[in-house]
Amino acid sequence: MEKQGDFFDDYKNDDTALIVNEGVEQPPVVNPYLSRFLKKRPTQMSADQFVEGIFAGNTTILSQAITLIENSLPENRALAQTIIQRCQERSNQIKSMRIGITGVPGAGKSTFIEAFGGLLTSKGHKLAVLAIDPSSEKSKGSILGDKTRMETLCNDPKAFIRPSPSAGSLGGVARKTRETVILCEAAGYDVIFIETVGVGQSEIAVHSMSDFFLLLMLSGAGDDLQGIKRGIMEMSDLIAITKADGTNVDKASMARALYANALHLFPPTESGWVPTALTSSAVNKTGLTEILDKIYEYFELVQGNGYYQRKRREQSRFWMYESINESLKNSFYENPMVEKLLPEYEQAVLDGKFESFAAATELFEKFQENKTF
Ligand code: GDP
After folding, report:
1. Which helix (H) or strand (E) holds 196?
2. Distance of CA 104 from the midpoint of ligand 1 (Å)
3. Helix, strand, or coil here: 4?
4. Among positive and negative, which fits the CA dihedral 114, 117, 119, 124?
5. pLDDT tens string 24-41
6. Which atom of ligand 1 is nearest to the CA of 246?
7. Which of 35, 42, 360, 372 registers the highest number of CB atoms within 10 A of its CB?
8. How far, in Å, is the centroid of ligand 1 from the Cα of 274?
């Protein structure tokens, strides 16, 4: 067989289109100038720079500070804590409205937030939309606080939308969201929406960080079908029956009457507020002003009777204990010895060689002997 070199040589001097040109050297895959650029990049901002930016309402810096909070790197924790602490003082000065919003998937949360949020900003409020979605880690990407589903609000200079922190346990995600609330308030957002799906535990977390709890319900489906637990209804300050438009108007008003009656059966609330039910259509933009009026009425009542301040203090205490619990849990599970021994203990329990309580006690004792403070 002819050698390849000879084959190409044959064509080299011929007057033919098959001439093989010498190749040009390919550019490197990585731009060599990038390293220079990277070196020139400013180093991490200081706490002062973060806080100044947040106080000035700079949304880029606000977003960076939230990322810092969400990023669990231990080296960032001290800086994040300093920023939160300083923002807390500013956040305490504004009497914000923290509104938890829940409802099953498809209840119309995003559409409602888009329309209702627009109403709030048109009234001069600055609105931050946050979300708690512990499932987002599994689904790799949040379904809540999704900017593509709130396009108008997303382009509204008075609105700031941030999807749910994606990593970690519900406790961790909720803590980060609560810290984000503080940062947003320090940046001048006086209304905070915290959205969640009302099918799990996350609505309890949302309730524990909001002043007002709004439950969005579909008409025509019983609450069993909607997966809404009685407890969720009981902690709602207002139920809004969504999609009250077109052929759905009658059904929605029937559902409203039904839920209004059900709310009356619950014991009186500590706040002195009487929860109620209304109908709304985010598409036709009807019923939204009535909902806002109810919310204003609620805040006037609770800010007047001291419940607003008391509840906030109780929530702060609750979150202190939540943080302690979270830290204790992490220090146990992240202890290298526990990490090593846990699978062995687990297998022994699975094999019936070790009783679960005894296994837990022994492992915990070993952790206590081994831990370093
Ligand atoms: P989410 O899953 O709770 O966030 O619900 P979405 O906001 O995504 O709404 C679910 C579906 O209901 C979408 O197809 C919306 O277009 C529709 N929808 C939402 N609000 C209304 C409304 O006020 N009226 C009508 N007719 N449809 C609505």
Report:
1. strand 191-197
2. 11
3. helix
4. negative
5. 777 666 666 666 555 555
6. 26
7. 360
8. 27
